[in-house]
Amino acid sequence: MTTPTGTVEQTDIVFPAQANHHGTLFGGNALQLMAKAAFLAARGAAQRDVVMAGVTDVRFLAPVPVGQVLTLRAWVTRVGRSSLTVCVSGLAATLGSPQDEVLKGIFEMVAVDGKGHPTPITHAYLNQEAA
Q1: I need a surface site. Which of 1, 24, 35, 49 has the fewest CB within 10 A?
Q2: Domains of the chain and any CATH numbers
Q3: Beta strands 100-111; 83-93: pairing state
Q4: Model-level pTM greater than 0.85?
């Protein structure tokens, strides 16, 4: 998997406090981590504050056991007047093993002003490689 230009990458380890009763990453915690990556990618691209407007698609492709290293990659694929679409991919691995894609999702973000109202994005980059 190539990493698109402008990609935000976060790496973390899954701890027991993030796990469900099966000893794997709880879906709610996975969504929180993915949303954070989407926020950082959108804010970087729009160069202003953003909020989440929706989640178009999230897929839990494989369980992520406690102790695995989870790398989230997020990149902007669409910039509208005040909105952005961000793709997020989650890759997990144990030390010394190759990464497997375990999560993916599409997040819709909106640029906002100081009062939380949608505001136009005047300067943004669009990752042409991933579009």
Answers
A1: 1
A2: 8-111 (3.10.129.10)
A3: antiparallel
A4: yes
